[in-house]
Amino acid sequence: MKKGAAVLLVLTLSAGLTACGSNNNAEVAAGGASAQAQQSQADLPAAKELLDQAAKAGSGVKSYALQTEQQETHSGETIDSPDSRYTITSQITMEPPAAYQKIELELAGAMNDSNQLQKYITSEAIYSARSEQWYRDDKELYETQANLREFTNIAAQLQQIQAAVNDMTVTGQGSSYILTGSVKDETARRQLTQMLLNQASSYTPGMQRSIKLSTVEEMTISYTLDAESKLPTASEATIRLASPLSDDETKSRITDMKITAVYSDYDRITAITVPEEVKAAAI
Fold first, then answer.
1. Within 10 A of 61 (CB to CB), how many other CB atoms are there?
2. 91 and 269 in contact (C-beta within 8 Å)?
3. CATH number for the domain harbouring residue 99
4. Is the distance from CB of 150 to CB of 201 less than 8 angstroms?
5. Residue 135: inside a domain, yes or no?
6. Does residue 3 belong to any structural domain of this protein?
7. Quick check: is 104 in a domain?
8. Residue 271, Cα to own-chain centre: how many angstroms?
9. From start to end of 162-214, where are the E strands?
10. What is the pLDDT of residues 107-155, one digit of tens each?
11. Chain centroid to CA 88: how far?
12. How far is CA 258 from CA 33, 73, 154, 182, 277, in A?
């Protein structure tokens, strides 16, 4: 009996020692992982330093491609606009300022699957097509080129982000840095919303009126930068607009927007050329 009790005591102590050893090993491993995470975080550059480097890199960009997706969902007292999604594919040159854009609009519940628009912006004219018919427009060329020069300038965009975004944090992911922050000032939120919509080529006269009459209640934004070149590879912004109803200003319609962008082909686009068949078909 005593022998059995002794064996049981040894087994109990052995199990306790094993558990303590496992706990100690787990604590050491957790401590090591925590220290490694802190060390990795400490090794990351500051947000301001990164944005300064990115703006400097962006100032030398001669051309790039941009894939933008803009999603809108509506809610509130009265919903009079369908949810929508814009997909904009752009090829852009900085000098001279020129672009080719393909814009696709999808409306929730619409009979047609999508509406497509193509556009060439050059130093000579603007050519646009909807439903395969091309049109030439010279009247708005100067203003359009000025907007194109301003809102496709990566360095200027990043400088505006740096001035407006509060408490921007930096994380590392593979060969990229991700900067994330929110915008607390309503005027800054409005200006950044205008910039992002212009960049996406979806800042239409109707949207201009909507932004002017709306309150930009919330905005968060993130940029992904290539760790080597410091140039943007992606961005994402979430925006909430509150628009008063025309017949009752005490009620409002809420528009939640999500704008994502993917940057590529830096300095690989040599020129934007309008095909001769487009020029011949334009009216």
1. 20
2. yes
3. 2.50.20.20
4. no
5. yes
6. no
7. yes
8. 25
9. 166-173, 176-182
10. 766 555 557 899 999 989 999 998 789 999 988 888 888 888 888 899 9
11. 13
12. 35, 9, 20, 14, 36
